[in-house]
Amino acid sequence: MIGARRPNWFRVASWVRHLGGWPWAVANRRLMGCCGRSGEVAGFVADRRGASAVEFALVVGPFVVILFGLLELALIFIVNISLGLATETFAGQLRTGQKQAPGLAASSSSGVQIDLADAKTQLCNSMLLLPLATCIQQLQIDVRPLTTFQTTASTTPVSGSTFSTSNLCFYSGNAGSIVEVRAYYLYPIVDPLLLAAFSPVSTYTSSGGSVSGSFYPITTTQVFKAENYSSGTNTGAGC
């Protein structure tokens, strides 16, 4: 329009600021404050304070379970390796006649003959990261002569979810015997992820009674033919 005056934008901005802001800002404030609880809910939804703490609380639980599972799995591997090395050393002593397993009836060691309790102590002293008392309680040893190398032990201590020591043997035979040495360590599993993965034993039965729990039987085996040693005849009772 000819002769029309241009608006003074400085005055317009001052007028809007005086009224409380632009129309949409005014409407937003009215929406947040005029409707009682609805305004409070809208304010709560828009508030981002504490979001990091909530997200951390949702993540920390599964993270701890997975981390603990990895640590426990690493410990199982260490126990497995330690048990294998300790059993290999013990089997070497039986093979050369330095030690003889005289049977379960032996109540004490005498000369080269070593009873089951001392054999457990010897193996546990060679294993890492395990308290001696706990290791002795959870460790079982089976020593028996075989007819040939193709023959294996006809019995196993694991039946379903039960581990029983009733059929174990502790007799190494004499010079020239083919001997099988098996060691079992019943590792108590704690992490719930490993419980589902390892299908553990739930009942552990030994001469000391029956114990319920979640145990994973770590097993190692050594088979050898004893040398023609001159350390004497094994006077123990066979299996």
Description:
With 239 residues, the chain is an alpha+beta fold. It has two domains: 11-45, no CATH class; 68-225. The chain is built from seven helices and six strands, in the order ααααααββββαββ. It has a six-stranded mixed β-sheet. Strand 5 and strand 6 form a beta hairpin. Helix 4 packs across helix 5 (116-125). The N and C termini lie far apart (119 Å).
Overview in brief:
This protein has 239 residues and is an alpha+beta fold. It is built from seven helices and six strands; from the N terminus they run ααααααββββαββ.
Which helices and strands appear, and what pairs or packs with what?
Elements: H1 9-19, H2 23-33, H3 37-46, H4 51-96, H5 116-125, H6 132-138, E1 139-146, E2 158-159, E3 162-164, E4 178-188, H7 192-198, E5 201-206, E6 209-225
Parallel strand pairs: 3-5
Antiparallel strand pairs: 1-4, 2-3, 4-6, 5-6
Helix pairs in contact: 4-5
Could you state the order of secondary-structure elements as H and E? HHHHHHEEEEHEE
**pLDDT average, as an integer?**
83
Helix content: 40-55%
Give start-end ranges of low-pLDDT stretches: 18-22
Measure the end-to-end span.
119 Å
Going across the major beta sheet, what is the strand order?
A: 1-4-6-5-3-2
Count of helix runs: 7
Number of strands: 6
Major sheet details:
6 strands, mixed
| SSE class | alpha+beta
Determine Rg (CA atoms, Å): 37 Å
Q: How many separate domains make up the residues?
A: 2
- Which term fits the overall shape? elongated
- Taken as a percent bin, the fraction of beta residues is 15-25%
